[in-house]
Specification:
The complex is a heterodimer. In chain A, strands 3-2-1-4-5-6-7 form a 7-stranded parallel sheet, sandwiched between helices. A 6-stranded parallel sheet of chain A has the order 10-9-8-11-12-13, with helices on both faces. Chain A is globular, with a radius of gyration of 21 Å. In chain A, 42% of the residues lie in helices and 16% in strands. Chain B is an alpha/beta fold. Helix content of chain B is 47%, strand content 13%. In chain B, α3 runs antiparallel to α4 and α8 packs parallel to α9. The longest helix of chain B has 49 residues. The radius of gyration of chain B is 27 Å and the shape is extended. Classes of the chains: A alpha/beta, B alpha/beta. The interface between A and B is large, with 64 and 49 residues.
């Protein structure tokens, strides 16, 4: 496939929001580099672009200025966005790069706006999927969703993530603060993710309460991540206060890569009780950082971790507290999980970009 | 947490499975010793629910409106405390400089929010009036219907039902649990069971010990359970008298709360028992009638289960054991 002018075909990417420290943004930037390396022209078009990434992307409504015959669009589907309607309207040949999205049921009772957005995302998936040349899913779980939405050709491909950021030099100030806390004893439990109902941070707090009561009275919980649900965050903070855990639960918000590395370096265990995950990049980051993972198998989590984590069927705090205690105290179990984690992370990273490029090349001729 | 070198097991997968079994046993012993009473876990859940925006599971409009009322006033006078010496002075100065502007904005926002709140109160009043009008036509919620000799520890179906759920990976819910007779049996067989029954008087009078029994409606309880949070559900005396919509709603909720590969067990009276002269009065008062075993199997097959029916020895009742296909996601688009 070539353009009318004989130049290389362009495979452009479209995305709702391009933010730093965001897994989908990292994936998009890396895929752009891989597409260019493969010889395609490739730009990123976004509805909203963070100032720090202003040089990396163009507003989506400016696409006509860059359009050429034969263009193909890859849409990074994460949530509802004006970009979906724009693509449907313009009828570009489309590859859906599906990161999954959190369903409206997880926001019910919290933010009505989030329920509306999630419901709209489902409608937009149903609108785009049947016409897509190809649907790229990050897990078999997401692949099933794509098929249910009417996508005829699908493939499971990895996420292009910068997993090395968790093993880079840690932020000295954060590392020193965490070391000071560790000196007082107690395990450090880590979770990384936006503070929203679907990530169930309140369940983590409940587990910490049980874990401190049953096994380790000095244990701490670090909930790293920004929020897009202020009602839930407020409820979570009030819950922490009610349980008298203000000194044990730390909510540092969104942090730099170096600070994140410090949190992973200090963690004894990574615990996720998310009710829904489309892939779960931080799970893999924990594996890369050598932190054993304990998790519920909700959404795509079981696909992501495979046999490299303690995947819990029950959600009650006493059960999870017992699992945490075992992971924190059993050296053989820790070694087994971290060894399996290292292998799993390598599997997920191996030839990741090439696998996506090959999948795209199956529907768009190589330049 | 220590620096000692640990050896890796020869078969890591088998080792992790063994560890999981040991963890489950540890939890069972902890529960039996009363270290973390079920009541405490329940209180933790309720404590968090009290902070949710609608202050409770029911999503009551009155509660929501009280929260709207409380939030309509926007305070333009920001706090100025600071951990740093000069911080409070700087903040106070900034507040004085900006208060005329911020105050003007917040006054309008408060007025706007109050107008919305007043409109919502009018809607609430009209809804309450409508509710009063439809109250007379309301279909009563289905109560628990128990037949003599069917809901007890020596009934024929208890053994196969216990065998089907005792090894579930995850908690097992029995509804309606009565005084916990089946919960005890499943725990004795190695399962991690608890019970729910809308007849709280039965639970209040039961000898609980370490049993986790909750006096609340089944549907309401299931809605509060985390997605994929249960390994198995046993329903007895709860679904026989339901009408189609209520039954469908319950099965949809169970579908999202059961983990993939989880088991649903339904015990139901037959129509013969339902129409018999010695049937309990609740059977006459129930809005619906029991389904036949074939209908249950068909219904559950459509819902992504593999179901088999076991008829009772005298044709008065039957058991359906259904396993949710492990590859099926409980979050189907239709349920969104």
């Amino acid at each position: 496939m070539s353009t009318a002018a004989g130049g290389p075909v362009a495979v452009h990417q479209f995305i709702a929001t391009l933010n730093p420290h965001d897994a989908t943004a990292t994936h998009t930037l890396r895929l752009r580099d891989a597409l260019r390396a493969a010889g395609w022209r490739s730009e990123i078009f976004a509805e909203a672009i963070h100032d720090d990434l202003a040089a990396e992307a163009i507003k989506h409504w400016m696409y006509p200025e860059h359009a050429a015959p034969g263009d193909v669009a890859i849409y990074q589907f994460t949530t509802s966005s004006a970009v979906a309607g724009y693509l449907a309207e313009h009828g570009l040949p489309l590859v859906l790069d599906f990161h999954n999205f959190t369903g409206p049921e997880y926001f019910a009772g919290w933010e009505p706006r989030s329920v509306e957005r999630a419901a709209l995302a489902a409608d937009q998936l149903a609108l785009l999927a049947p016409a897509a040349l190809l649907g790229l899913a990050k897990s078999p779980f997401s692949q099933q969703e794509l098929r249910r939405a009417g996508c005829r050709h699908t493939a499971v491909v990895p996420v292009l993530a910068d997993y090395r950021r968790v093993t880079a030099a840690p932020d000295a100030r954060v590392a020193a603060e965490l070391a000071r806390l560790r000196a007082g004893g107690g395990a450090d439990i880590l979770f990384v993710g936006r503070v929203v109902p679907s990530k169930a941070q309140h369940e983590l707090v409940k587990v910490l309460w049980a874990y401190r009561r049953l096994y380790d009275p000095k244990a701490r919980l670090h909930l790293v991540g920004g929020t897009s649900s202020f009602e839930y965050t407020k409820a979570l903070q009030d819950y922490v206060d009610d349980l008298d855990l203000s000194a044990a639960v730390r909510l540092p918000g969104e942090v730099s890569d170096a600070a994140l590395a410090a949190y992973f370096e200090a963690a004894d265990v990574y615990l996720s009780l998310s009710a829904h995950e489309g892939f779960g990049v931080p799970l893999v980051e924990a594996m890369v950082a050598g932190v054993p993972v304990v998790t519920r198998g909700a959404g795509a989590v079981s696909d992501t971790v495979a046999d490299a984590a303690l995947v819990l069927a029950a959600a009650d705090p006493s059960y999870i507290a017992a699992a945490l205690h075992r992971v924190c105290t059993d050296e053989q179990l820790r070694a087994t999980l971290t060894d399996a984690g290292t292998r799993r992370a390598a599997e997920l990273s191996r030839d990741a970009a090439a696998r996506i490029v090959d999948a795209v090349a199956a529907v768009v001729r190589r330049p | 947490m220590t620096d000692t070198e640990a050896t890796l097991p020869e078969d890591p997968q088998a080792y992790v499975e063994q560890v999981m079994a040991e963890i489950a046993e540890e939890v069972r012993l902890r529960r039996a010793s009363g270290d973390l009473p079920p009541k405490l876990e329940r209180e933790l859940d309720e404590l968090f629910l009290a902070h949710s925006p609608v202050a409770g599971r029911g999503g009551d409009l009155g509660d929501a409106l009280r929260m709207v009322d409380a939030a309509t006033f926007i305070d333009p006078v920001v706090p100025v405390e600071s951990e740093r010496a000069a911080g409070a002075v700087v903040k106070k100065g900034m507040r004085s400089l900006l208060l005329w502007y911020v105050g003007w904005l917040t006054h309008q926002m408060s007025q706007s929010a109050s107008a919305v709140s007043r409109a919502l109160h009018i809607v609430d009043g009209r809804l309450q009036e409508l509710e009063r009008q439809v109250e007379g036509q309301r279909v009563p919620a289905t109560g628990v219907v128990e037949f003599p000799g069917m809901q007890c520890a020596d009934a024929w179906w208890v053994e196969p039902a216990t065998a089907a759920v005792a090894k579930a990976s995850g908690r097992v819910l029995h509804a309606a649990c009565g005084d916990g007779w089946l919960v005890r049996r499943i725990i004795a067989a190695g399962g991690d069971a608890y019970g729910v029954d809308p007849r709280s008087r039965l639970i209040d009078s039961a000898t609980l010990g370490t049993l986790d029994l909750r006096g609340e409606p089944v549907g309401e309880h299931l809605r509060a359970v985390a997605a994929a949070g249960l390994g198995a559900v046993v329903l007895s005396g709860t679904v026989d008298g339901m009408v189609g919509a209520e039954r469908g709603q319950l099965l949809t909720t169970i579908g999202t709360r059961l983990a993939p590969g989880g088991t649903l067990v339904v015990h139901s009276a037959s129509r013969q028992a339902w129409e018999a002269a010695d049937a309990p009065p609740e059977a006459d008062l129930a809005p619906g009638r029991p389904l036949r075993p074939e209908a249950w199997c068909s219904l559950l097959d459509q819902g992504g289960y593999e179901a088999v029916a076991l008829p009772g020895p005298d044709g008065l009742d039957f058991l359906v054991i259904a396993v949710r296909a492990s590859v099926t996601s409980p979050y189907t688009p239709a349920e969104r």
